[in-house]
Amino acid sequence: MAEPILAADETLTPAAPPRSRWSLSPINRRRLDNFKRNRRGYGALWLFLVLFITSLFAELIANDRPIIASYKGEILFPVMVDYPEEKFGGFLARTDYRDPVIANEIKAHGWMIFPPIRFSYDTINRDLPAPAPSPPTWWLSDAQCAAAAAKVGGKGCGDIEWNWLGTDDRGRDVVARLIYGFRISVLFGLILALVASLVGIGAGAVQGYFGGWVDLVLQRLIEIWTSIPRLYLLITISSVVAPGFFVLLIILLLFEWTSLVGVVRAEFLRARNFEYVNAARALGLTDGTIMVKHVLPNAMVATLTLLPFVLNGSITTLTSLDFLGFGLPPGSPSLGELLQQGKSNLQAPWLGISGFAVIALMLSLLNFIGEAVRDAFDPRKTFA
Amino acid sequence: MSAAPILSVRNLAVAFRQGGKTTLAVDGVSYDLRRGETLALVGESGSGKSVSALSIVRLLAASQTTGEILVDGEDMLKADEARMRQIRGNVISMIFQEPMTSLNPLHTVERQISEILTVHQGLSSEDARARTLDLLTRVGIPKPETRMDSYPHQLSGGQRQRVMIAMALANKPDLLIADEPTTALDVTVQAQILELMRDLQRETGMAMLFITHDLGVVRRIAHNVCVMRRGKIVEAGPVSEVFANPQHEYTRALMAAEPKGLPPPEDLAKPIIVQGQDVKVWFPIRKGLLRRTVDHVKAVDGISFSVRAGQTVGVVGESGSGKTTLGLATLRMIRSDGPILYLGQRIDQLGFKAMRPLRKDLQIVFQDPYGSLSPRLSVAEIVEEGLTIQQPDLSWEARRAIVARSLGEVGIDPQAMDRYPHEFSGGQRQRIAIARAIALQPKFVVLDEPTSALDMSVQAQIVALLKKLQAERDLAYLFISHDLKVVRALANHLIVMRHGKVVEQGAASDVFAAPKSDYTRALLSAAFA
Prior knowledge:
The complex is a heterodimer. Chain A is an all-alpha fold. Chain A has helices at 26-37, 39-56, 58-61, 100-108, 142-151, 174-210, 212-226, 230-240, 245-256, 258-271, 275-282, 287-324, 335-344, 349-377, 379-382, and strands at 68-71, 74-76, 110-113. The two termini of chain A are 15 Å apart. The model of chain A is unreliable at 1-19 (pLDDT under 50). Chain B is an alpha/beta fold. Chain B is 36% helix and 26% strand. Chain B is built from 20 helices and 20 strands. The longest helix of chain B is centred in the middle third of the chain and has 18 residues, at 187-204.
């Protein structure tokens, strides 16, 4: 910076036009540019976002109910609304649109549009050409498909409903389970990582800012807490409480929050003696205000850098629990359960391979994004 | 003195690229340096003086350098990296500003020096040890035999800088580049180091390129001087001529920039604002399993003072003398013993909450304007922060009005209040920090070295600003500084501190005119030599 001399000190260097409330500060702009420059990470972010947002609409992609149907002049949205089967002359509480009787009834009085994949994660394909786990349909010869095709009045594999990646050992479509499984994994990971970060930042902030006895006691508590083997505890708990999505989330949260405490604490320890923090104290600001307004922004860099890896860790934990059978309740679309099926059905490699491919892709993408974020926040690059 | 210059720089230009923008840090600089001579490069921060020196040994990454740098007739810019390694440390040595970070904290002094000797001269370890001892003796390290096995943190700042000089001299360089070697040191130590460097130059006949912003240092050590500004040399010549008869307006401005003038006379009829009686800040040293307190670090050890409205009490002393601690204790930012009175009311036993309403009357301005302003808040947010706590019922418009008025008073255009601190220069930032303090209408301000981190020309402006504010508002100042020139321009009353104790205390004019203690005399002679 060229230091103006003497009287010139009074004048302001012509600076950038005043920025509006929501535009990025120059340093964040440089970080964003750095992030974009890492093409692998930037590409991974886009690919991940596309996959994730697509999977959020899984019901419209893979479902055993039509997206939209017209029956006797009435427009129906079976994806969103449960219509009793009586409406179509049946007797079940929920309509089974895959039932040929119902399907023919609707087709006779209107039309219906199915999602591209006509299976939901829990739909059992009862017309399998081969016993479950049935291989991908394109793997089969027409002779193998003949029996299943005959039911719908066809001859070969082209006439029956396809299972692109085969089915699992209960006859459920693997593609549908992958899509739903991906969604539940990422959502679980995101929620767990976010809540764990909030708790961890809070705990780390208190420890680092106040130091002394608070720090000492909390640190020891965390050390004892993290030394509890979490897997055994989970196994014990899941034998008492039926593990659902939120039960698992809370149990895992009890352990996951400690991962960010260290870095946040270190940042707060460092920043609590910054001169502008001291200046804020001299102005009489409360500790809470100082922590949030002056110190927390310093800790955000470390937190954002670690966040993708915390997210990855959360997803892996869920998957491994599902693999062991202590995770989500039976029947849930879970990648870990798919892997488990792959292990017990080695004669059906499509189960293990497709599960592995999706998990590997998801974790790699998140790792690439995390790497790019870390590099973008690297002060040597930010200020270079 | 040989006629051929050892270093000859012609048309040197150094450019940095950043985000597609090219900044010219050094722009067409030329100078010569002969053996046995000292050339000083003077200028303010950002004038390109360090960059032009670092480019001689090609230590700058990510820059484009053009021109010619001839060392003994050899162009440094055309030499390959292997040749450069031979030259660095052998022909050209360097000393840096910060002696703490320039030494490896994990190696002993002996190892750091002898490493250079074994690498560059291939000495055996015994020979290297003997030579290290000889070097340490020459740079004036007391008891060099025992100091050889010390680690850098066991040495004082001055001793560390002496070790750095010993390292630089180990290979008998022809050219020594010293980048602000005395800036981080206390004044008395500064004088000793300068003397040492002058003696060594006389002995070895090496050439010195001396980079500094301090004109006093230039006057003491250099033969020739180049005044730099914005990458260009604005004036060059022998020191005596340049100082006697500066040609360029910038040089004249630099010379006039030293804080001048005397403080306004004090009025003993005015009320005492803040008073401390036998103030003590002792940090316990705990040892053993039970953490029993075995001793205390007596950072401030029984100091009494009083500050009247419109009066400035100067606290001077070297680093570690406890002057900042005293300032913080006065504001109750750290725990202390001994009564502290604000307008006759004892405040030393109040808790943080009870202190809060008083904080608007007792303010502080810190040393480093780069560290004391949060980089994430706009200037308006910084200045209004205290108001949001002290006067929470003010409307947004009223707060903005106070911010604008405060900024105007310190000479910052109120229009700039929505900008961020990094858009301002060091001097402007310090003005903003002062605006933050005065926005609360305080009666008493602790000024903790408010000018030390600033360039010389800006220092004088800040001193003038402080005087103006004091006159207008009848402010009481506790002015903490190691720079006696600034203190003389501001303080009515003086406290000289050393090791937490008062060495001398009295009316500033008396202390400056007739110092009673040896320590004060040493300080004064170092500052006004």
